[in-house]
Amino acid sequence: MLDQTDNQILDELSRNSRIKMKELGEKVHLTAPAASARIAKLEDSGVIEGYTIKLNHTKMGFFIHAFITVLTQSIHHQPYLDFLKGQEKYQINHYKISGGGCYLLECKFPSNEIMNLFLEELNQYANYKLSIVIKKS
Predict the structure, then answer these.
(1) How far is Cα 55 from Cα 66, in angstroms, rounded to an integer?
(2) What does the alpha-carbon distance between residue 135 and residue 31 come to, in Å, rounded to a whole number?
(3) CB 104 within 8 Å of CB 95
(4) Cβ distance 91 to 84 under 8 Å?
(5) Secondary element (H or E) of residue 105
(6) pLDDT higher than 90, residue 12
């Protein structure tokens, strides 16, 4: 069970996973070694699974941000999943969902033309519904 200090540590690490232990300790009222020990415990227990970076896809040349709800055409999803293995450069997230589709793909594309090629190829394996992100709020 997480206590208030653990939750504060997680909040701070969510904002900045590169924070110095001394600074983190000051923010959560612990010494740097105590904060470090808490983090190690959170890692060992699996609460913290890893650390990541946040990328600016637009600055990397991917100007289109899209969500694609995928409805596979049969109960055999493997052809669709195999198709995705060659398309990792466009994928941000891929979720198995229930409700209005089988999968939800979060993608990035450098242009409408590239996105259209992706969708044409995707349509060989599944139907889809496309939503384009206008602005992140």
Answers:
(1) 16
(2) 41
(3) yes
(4) yes
(5) strand 103-109
(6) yes
Instruction: Please provide the average confidence, as pLDDT, over all residues in the chain.
Output: 95
Q: Is 108 left (phi over 0), alpha (psi -120 to 50) or beta?
A: beta
Cβ–Cβ under 8 Å, residues 118 and 135: no
Q: Between 24 and 136, whose confidence is greater?
A: 24
Q: Which residue has the tokens 């995705």?
A: 84
Phi and psi angles of residue 59, each rounded to the nearest 5 degrees, phi first? -70, -15
pLDDT tens for each residue of 34-79: 999 999 999 999 999 999 888 889 999 999 999 999 999 788 899 9
pTM: 0.77
**CA–CA separation, 127 vs 106, rounded Å?**
15
- 1: pLDDT strictly greater than 90: no
| Separation CA 10–CA 8 (nearest Å) | 5
Query: For residues 126 and 77, what is the distance between their CA atoms, to the nearest angstrom?
Result: 9
Q: Which domains does the chain have, with CATH numbers?
A: 4-44 (1.10.10), 64-132 (3.30.70.920)
Looking up tokens 């109960």, which residue turns up? 75
